[in-house]
Amino acid sequence: MKKQKIKYRKIRGINRRKRAIEKWGSRNKVLDIKNLKQMHRDYVKFWVSPWTDFSLINSVYPEPTGELKSLLIANLMSIYDLWDKALKQLEQPYDLQTWLFEGAISRSQVTCTINEPMDFTNVFEPVEEQPNEGIKSSNHYNDDTAEVLDRYDWTLHKYIQAYDLADPWDVEYIESVDNQQLLRTQTIGQKEYQMIEIDKVWLLLEQK
Asked: Which domain of life is it from (predicted)?
């Protein structure tokens, strides 16, 4: 199966996009404690137009770059810091994480739970050997992001998904990906799955 070529749409109105990212950050910096106590978990994703807009045609917006990416990272980590302070005041066990995706940075998010740890071992697995330079080896590390990223201890993981080898649609997708993304076959329940590396992700974990 040939890969379908993706058309990238031009990002217009950079200043408007910057304001949208700042508004997204401001809206999410206050952790909803009431909801957290009811649901025991909360998260915030990068819900900013146009990156979350649904397209009816075979085209997507490119991932944020330059100032847009720097703003995304700055606001994401500000959310993490303020959530961490709010969670500490609860004086009960919590698990707080930031997921900074290496390729599709727009997938990045902050997520937390209270009274129970998060288990994403079926989604993230550590790379065989951590980069010698740590976060400095990230595509996102530059003069504009270094001050923020250097404050934290990141670990690099693989972001993986399982595809059913008995499902024709899954098999068609498996045949379209690069061989380097194919990790292993694995039995889950009674089915055989192909494990595929979708992206790399830097994880920041805080458990108290």
From this structure: Bacteria
Instruction: Give the three-class secondary structure for 122.
Output: coil
User: What pLDDT, in 10s, does the model give residues 91-103?
Assistant: 899 999 999 999 9
- Assess contact for 97 and 77: CB atoms under 8 A: no
* N-terminal to C-terminal alpha carbon distance within the chain: 48
Rg (CA), the chain: 19
pTM tops 0.90, yes or no: no
- pLDDT tens-digit profile of 48-76? 887 776 554 555 678 899 999 999 999 99
For 61, which DSSP code? P
DSSP-assigned letters across all residues of 147-166: HHHTTS--EEEEEEEEEETT
Nearest alpha-carbon partner for 174 in 166, 102, 107: 166
CA-CA distance, 41 to 68, in Å (whole number)? 28
